[in-house]
Design goal:
about 180 residues; elongated; Tetracycline Repressor, domain 2; single chain; 9 helices; mainly alpha; about 75% helix
């Protein structure tokens, strides 16, 4: 793995675990075993530029995973149930689902940095777009599909945060049972 990819991978994990403000550059440097000069070589504008690179990496990983699941299933209802089941299984085996959520970064940085807010907005829009396209393929009207896609995005992201804060997979289990009812 090249140095830039290593920095992004380690910083992403740190940002998800501790938040943007909770992670100092020195902690990133130490975890990556690199010098400050090496970090600034890859990210000349510093920590915020690194965060945006991390969000872009997350966007690629998360959307690729969702797209893969949604291609495998005929209906949005089936795909959604499978995706949530995968999140539940991840949480129950690993005790976390940080690789799939970035809400803490949004809540921490959205009002402080337009570039970070925009990167987060693009990620949510891409996820929502996957849901929207599948719902349209299921025959929903554009207006209805859009509304359901918004509810799906908010419910699943919120459910992950509830699982993390309550240390139980119960919120996602409830969402897995109730969310498909919107797709009847």
């Amino acid at each position: 793995m090249d140095t830039k990819s290593l920095i992004i991978e380690i910083a992403t994990a740190l940002f998800q675990k501790k938040g943007y403000i909770g992670v100092g550059l020195s902690e990133i440097l130490k975890a990556c075993n690199i010098s400050k000069g090496s970090l600034y070589h890859h990210f000349p504008n510093g920590k915020e530029e690194l965060l945006i690179a991390c969000l872009d990496s997350l966007k690629e990983t998360i959307t690729k995973d969702i797209e893969h699941i949604f291609r495998r299933y005929t209906t949005t209802k089936e795909a959604t149930k499978e995706m949530i089941e995968k999140l539940i299984a991840t949480f129950e085996t690993e005790g976390t689902i940080t690789g799939y959520t970035f809400s803490s970064i949004v809540s921490e940085m959205a009002s402080l940095s337009d570039p970070v807010r925009n990167a987060c907005a693009q990620l949510y829009q891409q996820i929502q777009g996957i849901y929207l396209n599948k719902l349209l393929a299921d025959g929903f009207s554009t207006e209805t599909a859009y509304s359901i896609a918004v509810v799906m995005t908010a419910s699943i992201e919120g459910g992950m945060m509830l699982c993390l804060t309550q240390k139980t997979s119960e919120p996602l289990k409830i969402i897995s049972e109730r969310l498909p009812n919107l797709m009847n």
